[in-house]
Design brief:
211 residues, alpha/beta, 3-stranded mixed sheet, 6 helices, globular, binds glutamine
Length: 211
C-alpha cells in the first residue's frame, strides 16, 4: 500500500477484508517481495511529488512497466495514466496504462457525487471525489465501468444541489474504471463504501499473476 498521502487506511481495510495482507510502501527497498501495489485516492500532484522525494518514482514506474499488479483509485488512476489532461505542468506520473485521463473532469459543480455504475457487469454504488474520467482508451485496455446514470432529482446523495442538467449530461456514459493486463484503475473510491468487489478483483489479479 503506497502510504505517502491519501486515504491509505481505508484501502488497507478494504484489501484486508478482500483477503490480502498489506504492508506500507514508503521506500524503494520495500518494493522487493510485494505481489502488488495500491495507489490511493488523495491528490495526484502531491503523491507524485512525494514519490520523487522518497526515491520511489523511477522504481515504481519500472515495477509497473514490468508487470507488477497495480491498482490506482482516483489520484492513483491519474498517476497510472500515460497521458493526463488538465494536470499541473510537469506533474510527475508513473504511467503504465494506455489511457488519457482528464483530471478533476466532472467539474466544480459536480466535484463530489455518488452514482451507480455498471462494474464488470454488475451494479456498483460508486463515490466520486474531484474525480478524473478516462477520455481515450488504448486498444489493449478493457473498459470495466461507465457512469450509467446520474440521478438529477436526488438532492444530496445523488448530486450536489447546484449541479445543472448540463453537468448531468456530461457525466453520463463516461469511462470510470479500466484494466490493462495487471493494471487496474478506478476514478471512484471503492474503499469508502464497504463493497469489496473492486479490491476483490485486484486480489484475484494478484493471484493470477502469481499463477
Ligand atoms: N483531483 C485529485 C487529483 O488530481 C484526485 C482526487 C481524489 O483522489 N479523490 O489527483
Amino acid at each position: 500500500m503506497l502510504a505517502l498521502q491519501g486515504d491509505v487506511r481505508e484501502h488497507v481495510a478494504a484489501l484486508e477484508a478482500a483477503g490480502a495482507r498489506t504492508t506500507p510502501l514508503r521506500a524503494p527497498g520495500e518494493l522487493a517481495g510485494l505481489d502488488g501495489v495500491v495507489i490511493p485516492g488523495g491528490e495526484s500532484t502531491a503523491i507524485g511529488r512525494l514519490l520523487g522525494l522518497f526515491d520511489l518514482l523511477e522504481p515504481l514506474r519500472d515495477a509497473v512497466a514490468q508487470g507488477l499488479p497495480t491498482y490506482g483509485s482516483c489520484a492513483g488512476m491519474v498517476l497510472l495514466a500515460d497521458e493526463v489532461l488538465d494536470g499541473l505542468p510537469g506533474q510527475p506520473l508513473l504511467g503504465g496504462l494506455d489511457v488519457s485521463v482528464r483530471r478533476n473532469a466532472f467539474g466544480s459543480q459536480v466535484d463530489s457525487f455518488e452514482a451507480d455504475v455498471c462494474f464488470a457487469g454488475s451494479p456498483l454504488h460508486a463515490v466520486f471525489i474531484r474525480a478524473p474520467w478516462v477520455e481515450r482508451v488504448g486498444p489493449s485496455v478493457e473498459v470495466l465501468a461507465r457512469v450509467a446514470s446520474y440521478d438529477a432529482s436526488a438532492p444530496l446523495q445523488g448530486r450536489p444541489q447546484d449541479a445543472t442538467d448540463g453537468d448531468v449530461g456530461r457525466a453520463a456514459g463516461r469511462v470510470v474504471a479500466v484494466r490493462q493486463g495487471a493494471v487496474l484503475a478506478t476514478a471512484f473510491h471503492p474503499e469508502l463504501t464497504g463493497d469489496t468487489r473492486v479490491h476483490g478483483l485486484f486480489v484475484e489479479m494478484i493471484q493470477e499473476a502469481r499463477g
